[in-house]
Structure formats: structure tokens, C-alpha cells
Design brief:
Blueprint: H1 4-25, E1 36-37, E2 47-48, E3 51-60, E4 63-75, E5 80-90, H2 100-118, E6 126-130, H3 142-150, E7 154-158, H4 169-175, E8 182-186, E9 192-197, E10 207-213, H5 217-226, H6 234-251, H7 254-259, E11 263-264
Parallel strand pairs: 1-2, 3-6, 6-7
Antiparallel strand pairs: 3-4, 4-5, 5-11, 7-10, 8-9, 9-10
Helix pairs in contact: 2-3
Length: 266
Amino acid sequence: MQTESESEDYVEQRRQWTQEQNRLKGQLLLHDDFPWKLSPPLSDPHQPLCLVGGVDLSFCKHDLTVGCGALVVLNINTMNVIYEDFAVTHLRMPYIPGFLAFRESPVLLALLEKLSRKHVDMYPQVLMVDGNGILHPRGFGLASHLGVLANIPTIGVAKNLYHVDGLCRQDLRMGHDITDASTPLVGNSGQVLGMALRSHPDCTKPIFVSVGHRISLGTAVSVVQKCCKYRIPEPVRQADIRSRKQIKVTSAVPSIRVTFDEHASP
């Protein structure tokens, strides 16, 4: 049971984080802002999209304050992972719904910063995030948060629908056939917050794609579709698989779990 002091701290934390989200949201770009194209013709001066990143975080089953962040980079033409890195850390921030970015973004930003220093030639042209972008109570989820702070085009890819602005899965089914290839997610405000996407012909469950930063919804959906071998686009899927594997290794050795801060793959 929360004490009065703890309750006041909780309210103050939410207030500060809301203020910071609103400040960062002022830098958000919801249109294409990059020099590449998905498949430019030979006569087009734009460079083709080649490097697509994915990030995810997995948690220790025995201690939910211990998490493993994973960053992978794939060649979009082959779907092969050409770079992977991990960071295992104690997450000091509490989880508060709607403020996931303040808990998870520091470790993911550190992985991106490390890649930019050591292997800039492998730095992703666009980053897929296991989470939401503008499909969020304040229009600024983890994908948007990472995109603004790292100044990289980002796409939010969620397995479950975030019920915001009047959106709910039941109404989505009533208004559209959710088994269609794609269904726009239009809130009560009239804003298109994302797309319910049946990403693979064999999948009946949609994923929910939203703009993170520096990309339009149409382009975001096209990139996601190009990366789907299964229901979850490969960059996010590989980040999830590899972070889970790494956290199991870390959890199996308690001494490493306590002292280990970062691991980089060769």
C-alpha cells in the first residue's frame, strides 16, 4: 500500500515526465525526412534503403529491474543480421503506464550511440521499435522518444492495440474487417494514429504500426511490409529473439547479472 509520501512522489514524477514528453514532442516530425527511398529507379538520385535497425528489451524472470536491450541492423535486401549488440542493465526508473520511454530509452540510446561511434557505416537508415510512436495517450511513445533523442527515422511496431483516443479492438472489428491487409486507426479526434496491418498472408492477428519520427505513415507501413517474413517484422523479431537469449545467459550467472553492464557482440 502506498504511503502519502510515495503517492505524492508518483504524482510529481508523472508531472515531470509529462512536461518532458511535451517538450520533446515539439521536435516531432511526422513526414518523410531522409535521403533514401525504398526502391528508387536507376535515374533517381536518392540512395536506396538498405540498413534497417530494430530494438527491443527483455527482462529477467527473477528480477524485473534487470533488462537486456538489443540493437540489430539488417540488410533489407537479404534480411540478414549484419550487426548486433546488447546492454544488460539495472532499470532504476519505475514502470508507469504511458511513460515507458523513461524506463527503456536510456539503454537503447546507449546502444545507438555506441554504434555511431564504432561502426558508423552500419548505422541504420531507419529504426523499428517494439512499441508505439504517436499511437500513445500524449502522442509520444517510445518510438517517437527514441527518434527525437537519436535524431533518426523511427517506426513503432506493437503487438497489441493501445486503447487511446477512443480506439479499441472491438470497435475496430465492427468498423472494418481486421483481417484486411491494412486498416487505418482513426481516433475520436479524427487523427489517423497508425495502421492495423496483417503483415503476412498466414497471420490472422494484426500488428499495429505507427509513426515514430521523421517518417510518414505510408512509408512506415511500406518498410514494415518489406521486412515481414512472419507476423513481426524481422528487425524487431530478431532484436526480441536475441535479447531473450542474452538475458537467459545473464540470469543463469547471478554474479554476472549484478556486475555486468554491457556486452557487445564481435
